[in-house]
Amino acid sequence: MAQLASALVTMILGVLGCAVYFYGSNILLDKIFPTKNRPAQQVASNLRIANSIRPWLFLGPAVLLLTFYLFYPVIDSIRLSFFDRSGEEFVGLSNYVWLFGSDEFFESFRNNMLWLIVVPTAATFFGLIIATMTDRIWWGNIAKSLIFMPMAISFIGASVIWKFIYDFRSGGDAQIGLLNAVVVFFGGEPQNWITIPFWNNFFLMIILVWIQTGFAMVILSAALRGIPDETIEAAVLDGANGLQIFFKIMVPQIWGTIAVVWTTITILVLKVFDIVLAMTNGQWDTQVLANQMFDWMFRGGGDFGRGAVVAIVIMVLVIPIMVWNIKRANAEMEGR
Amino acid sequence: MIASSKRSPLTYLVHATVLFLVVIWTIPTAGLFISSIRDKDQLSVSGWWTALSTSEQLIIARANDPKTQVQEGDLFVIRGNLLDGSSGDVTKFGSSSLEPEAFDAGAVADLRKGQTLQVMENGDYAFSSPTPWEGRSQRIFYTAEIPPRFTLDNYREVLSTEGLGKSFLNSLTVTIPATIIPILVAAFAAYALAWMRFPGRALLVAAVVGLLVVPLQMSLIPLLKSYNLIGEFFGVGSKTYVGIWLAHTGFGLPLAIYLLRNYIAGLPGEIIESARVDGASDFDIFRKIILPLSFPALASFAIFQFLWVWNDLLIAMVFLGNNEEHLVLTGQLRELLGSRGGNWEILTASAFITIIVPLCVFFSLQRYLVRGLLAGSVK
């Protein structure tokens, strides 16, 4: 409790600090370049100077934080990828040579590609189906709310939930994991699902699909509502059936949104780490890049060079989406 | 829309499909919750979907110590009750592990040398022997039908002995400041990027959009190094709450700025222009006009950031470490997953404690969350 109190105090201090900074720096600026009761000439020049400084007072803390936490580390990671495990001795390309010669890397790269193909596709697909169907029924909002719910659950919490479903009891014991119980019910042989190489990847992916479908559904549902009714009415008059309307009229009109959902989930997939760490920690051929990076960061006291190299691979995979996003954001700004 | 206007078989198919999907999507969480309030002995032998039915369990018990024997006539008798007062029915019993179900309840089992064992349906048992009992207490194997038992014991256990209570406080300590601070910093920056004119604005906006997708992994190693240096300089160690608050602030800023800038830029320009004409400074405009008007966007981001910080494992592990004192809920859950891997009564209760707060936030503030999602995904 004392700890929580001190956190609250610190928070209030932090908020006050922010307020004092913004308030104080603005007042200070007005004091240094006064605009009241001065000759017109001076007022104009003071106003100009103050107005050119003020944006940076507003932006200052944000720019500093972004630089320290995101911009500088990206540069430094690139630098560190050419250095040894402690980050002190220059070793040239040897980290990269190690990376492309290591089986572990190819395993995680292959798995990441699988994740990249399966998870965004499945989540977007289910999201689209559910969004379309829930719009037509009276209890659609309740259904959406329940399918959206896993979004609030942490990856590690979701891992526990699904590990329980995949639970395996050897011998003739009663299965307490739902999946094995269903398998046994239909006369199958219970399996230790997360230890079956290659296929276990899919059992881990299901967890992320379960979480992300709600996100896809919410965004796509809003896009579907934005489709003008006239286009659908016209199609109905022309005698199109339900499937044709869906695939030829509705889906083409929300391609942009589908792409946004797809890329957003893709980026999330590249960063996925908690699920693999909790379920298998990369055993049984389930390693992915983000977990491998984390692993090298601390393995045997930490190998910063190799960790940085793996991070760079993730970054390189993200760059195309980043460029695409910036282009679209710019286009949107110009339209304003 | 179109399909719902006529009650075609298709409509029923839609209802059925959605119901099916909803069930699939909810069952995992429901299973977790039901399991967490079941009796731990039942949880480990039967699936949670049988929670409401009577379960049959084969149990091995030890009879009371031979010292408690009493002499009744010629016989030395040890009495007791297998079920210890809890409800349930004994159906079968036996005295050896080879034949644990040899006798029906109520029957008298003949053991060696004239010794007998009788177990009644209600759990009462009696060992009797012509000679005094000696040595260790006797084993009894029995099969009992035990009615469903629900209990909060699992929660009591994880909150006290497994350290979840402490972690809960740690999570709150991390989450609250890490939610509030970025909002303040981002709101000012977003206003500047939306309504103030200065060179380099477009570049900054582009940079924010770019940083939106930079993987955290790129930042971890350099920041770990910086934190170590800074910690050494101030002599406070590198894993502090202030450190993790600032880290979450830094990582949350791109989304915060992007979301708030979009919203603030969409506010009507006339209000701001007329305030400027009236001589209000940018600071006044921000404080008196922008902040109150952008409440919905601020709320959206607050919920995002809250869920993200509460659910985060990676940043907490790197910047707060693994020691008992500082473990947040997600970190604690991961530790338990390693150390108590098979104890589902502990894992399910712990997992439910970690997800209950985000679930409450989610269901009470869903409206803002949806709005934030719609504004936050790069259009």
UniProtKB/TrEMBL annotation, chain A:
TM region positions: 6-29, 56-75, 113-134, 146-165, 202-224, 245-270, 304-326
UniProt record, GO biological process: transmembrane transport
Family recorded in the similarity comment: Belongs to the binding-protein-dependent transport system permease family.
One Gene Ontology cellular component: plasma membrane
Signal peptide: none
Pfam short name (any one): BPD_transp_1
Keywords of the record: Cell membrane, Membrane, Transmembrane, Transmembrane helix, Transport
Protein name: Sugar ABC transporter permease
Annotated membrane topology: Multi-pass membrane protein
Protein's UniProt keywords contain Transmembrane: yes
Protein localization: Cell membrane
Top-rank lineage group of the source organism: Bacteria
Domain ABC transmembrane type-1: 109-325
Principal subcellular localization: membrane
InterPro entries (alphabetical): ABC_transporter_permease, MetI-like, MetI-like_sf
Keyword Nucleus: no
From TrEMBL, chain B:
Signal peptide: none
Keyword Coiled coil among record annotations: no
Pfam families: BPD_transp_1
One GO biological process term: transmembrane transport
Any one GO CC term of the record: plasma membrane
Major location category of this protein: membrane
Membrane topology label: Multi-pass membrane protein
Alphabetical list of InterPro entries matching this protein: MetI-like, MetI-like_sf
Residue ranges the record marks as coiled coil: none
Ranges annotated as spanning the membrane: 12-34, 174-195, 202-221, 241-260, 289-310, 346-365
Alphabetical UniProt keywords: Cell membrane, Membrane, Transmembrane, Transmembrane helix, Transport
Keyword Nucleotidyltransferase: no
Start and end residues of each ABC transmembrane type-1 domain: 168-365
Compartments, record wording: Cell membrane
Homology family: Belongs to the binding-protein-dependent transport system permease family.
Name assigned to this protein: Carbohydrate ABC transporter permease
